[in-house]
Amino acid sequence: MTRRLLILFALVAGLVAACGLTWSIAWQRGIDILRHNAAVRVDRTANALKSTLERYESLPYLLAEHPFVQDVLVSPGAPNVERANRYLEDLNRHARATASYIIQTNGTCIAASNWHEPESFVGAGYQFRPYFVDAVKGGVGRFFGIGTVSHDPGYYISQPVRRDGRTVGVAVVKLNLEWFQGADAAEPLIVTDDHGVIFLSSMPAWKYHTVRPLSGAVADSIFQTRQYAQQEIPPLPVTIERTLEDDAQIVRVGGGRYAPRYLASRRAMGEPDWQLITLASVDPVDADARNDAIVVGFGYVTLCLLAFYWRMRRARVREMMRSRELLQRAYAELNQRVAERTADLSQANEQLKKEVSERTRAEQELRSAHDELIQASKLAALGQMAAGITHELNQPLAALRGFSDNTRVLLERGDQELARENLEAIAALTERMGKITNQLKLFVGRARPRSARAPLARALRNVLALLQKRLAGVEVTLTVVDAETGTRECFDPSAEHPALVANCDDLRLEQVLINLLGNALDATAGLAPPRIEIEIEAADATLAISVRDNGPGIPDDILPRLFEPFFTTKEMGHGLGLGLAISSSIARDAGGSLAARNAPDGGAVFVLTLRRARVQAIDPLTAGS
Ligand code: ADP
Description:
- The chain is of the alpha+beta class.
- It has 4 domains: 59-176, PAS domain (Beta-Lactamase, 2-Layer Sandwich), CATH 3.30.450; 179-283, 2-Layer Sandwich (Beta-Lactamase), CATH 3.30.450; 325-430; 448-611, Heat Shock Protein 90, CATH 3.30.565.10.
- The chain has helices at 2-57, 59-65, 67-74, 78-95, 130-136, 178-181, 216-224, 283-413, 416-444, 456-466, 468-471, 506-524, 579-589; strands spanning 99-104, 109-112, 141-146, 153-163, 166-175, 189-192, 198-201, 238-245, 248-253, 261-268, 275-281, 453-455, 475-482, 488-490, 501-503, 531-538, 542-549, 593-598, 604-611.
- Strand 13 and strand 14 form a beta hairpin.
- It starts with a helix and ends in a 14-residue tail after the last strand.
- It binds adenosine-5'-diphosphate.
């Protein structure tokens, strides 16, 4: 802040100094030119005046020498006067003087060139006039004054008129110098007499003023000689501001601060002892100097502004360069970070790819293990079933053998009736055996095409038929519940229920149900009475099949492990521990779930939830199987 103030102060000081210096130089130069021009002018004017005066200088002398003039002074009779008058008139006209006249030694004008004019000088007394006094004394009289008769100002040159070595009178020539003063207010010209009284001036108001105060004696003498017609001679209000040389001064004419200033150039005329002064207005010099100072001031301010602009620009450029450098650095840093991050990401990507491929491999392995497990479970169930079937078939086979032996004997005996009865029994036995093998076919699953739609009634029907033997003596109840209304009713699996279709492979659904019912049968074995409740809860989008038994339930510690593969609590040879694991994965594959819990009033509950299939026309091929 302080630095800025200082700079501002220095700039303002510089501006003032530059303007001041310019003004001073320009003014001095202007004054020099003005002085030179004024000097030329004053010299020229002074020379012009001098040559005019000199031209008339000898005229009174010639007059004084003329016999007519001398004659009239010696004997002032009428013929001489008239002759002299005419001579003076003629001479005056030719010489272009204002007036020429002759004065007697007593001061009375005896003859004049204007003798016939009303304001004729003839008869007028001039004894008080200095030019008369000087000439009478024998010298040359030179005098400027206002005419006592004509009241016109004029320059008087006089010579004594001598006859026989005696002064008999005075010859005078009056010149009007008014033409000389001109009327140029811009470049005034004044002529002062030996007392400093202005008698010629281009400024009429300045006339008959003094440029320096008159002493009492001088004022008296002017009054006595009636030089300026008895009028008052006040001083001209002139203030000398500066003296450049002896004959050149800067003056202010008139009162007040705003009075015009002039360069006054003075020349002494010599004889007569006059001063010619030319005045040249200093205003143009002042104006020029002021204009120059203003131009320089503007230039200075412009330069300052340019310098300021340049400095700002340089600062901006520097700032821009710095910003660019920062940006470049940031860009490089970013690039580096991106490269590092990309490397990290590539590495992570590689890692992920590796993990994905490992997982894919693991998944494939799992899937194949799963398939293998299913297969193993099937084989295990098949083994169990084979044992059951073998047991089931052995009995009818033995009966068949017995019946056939009996029939042969009966036929040999001719007992047709009994033989026929035996054959009917054989037929019944084979039908029963067919049913058993048919169930086996069903389980293996390749007996009919698979379907992703599993009607619940058919699946339950097949499973119940398959487990018919084991279910003998077990109280099985089937219920269907509408989840929306809560209405419950008995479920008859032998009837068609086209609305209750699950989105699942039908054989797999049967496999799950066989597992659940098999486990329930295992759990309730030996109980009196064993009871299994199958409940179908039909919701809008799902079908939940729960299998509940009245067995011992599932101990809390093994509940979380139920669905682990190979987890079993059964004795060797009775269970592989795969049933629930496979059932759960089948449910998951079908987009459903399998959950286990204990019922509040005892027994285990397994709930298989599947997505409900959209209702469609019943498949005539599968509906009856
Ligand atoms: P497995 O029947 O071969 O043992 P599962 O996976 O079908 O294999 O069953 C695992 C275990 O779950 C069984 O060993 C048994 O302890 C238990 N379990 C299954 N169902 C029931 C049930 N209804 N009541 C009590 N425990 C059961």
